[in-house]
């Protein structure tokens, strides 16, 4: 089977720039010292739509005020306007980051969504998953809690 995951567990997470919800340009390296969950999704992807409510309830709402944690929900091949409309239509509170040209996604993977990459405070990838499965998501939630308890 062809390897589709480029960012491997144990490696430094590939750095990238993005426009933060406050409109400022940021890069992943600015978040060093925090535990970062990167989620790649698309508005048309069925498994992504199943996962997003869990991400909002079990991760975003739980950790949104935790200074040691950052959640980046990245819309692969989506423009900011599309994501804003999607967020409003679906009633999400999560912030979405646009990756219209796949410039961020292409550093992490070649295909398949949804995908999660958990990055520890040292900037290393410590977890990755493809698709949405309850047992994977439970494992991810536990890992986040363990990392933040350090």
Automatic annotation (TrEMBL):
<keyword id="KW-0676">Redox-active center</keyword>
<dbReference type="InterPro" id="IPR013766">
    <property type="entry name" value="Thioredoxin_domain"/>
</dbReference>
<keyword id="KW-0201">Cytochrome c-type biogenesis</keyword>
<keyword id="KW-1015">Disulfide bond</keyword>
<dbReference type="GO" id="GO:0017004">
    <property type="term" value="P:cytochrome complex assembly"/>
</dbReference>
<dbReference type="GO" id="GO:0016491">
    <property type="term" value="F:oxidoreductase activity"/>
</dbReference>
<dbReference type="InterPro" id="IPR036249">
    <property type="entry name" value="Thioredoxin-like_sf"/>
</dbReference>
<dbReference type="InterPro" id="IPR017937">
    <property type="entry name" value="Thioredoxin_CS"/>
</dbReference>
<dbReference type="InterPro" id="IPR013740">
    <property type="entry name" value="Redoxin"/>
</dbReference>
<dbReference type="InterPro" id="IPR050553">
    <property type="entry name" value="Thioredoxin_ResA/DsbE_sf"/>
</dbReference>
<dbReference type="Pfam" id="PF08534">
    <property type="entry name" value="Redoxin"/>
</dbReference>
<protein>
    <submittedName>
        <fullName>Peroxiredoxin</fullName>
    </submittedName>
</protein>
<dbReference type="GO" id="GO:0030313">
    <property type="term" value="C:cell envelope"/>
</dbReference>
<feature type="domain" description="Thioredoxin">
    <location>
        <begin position="7"/>
        <end position="149"/>
    </location>
</feature>
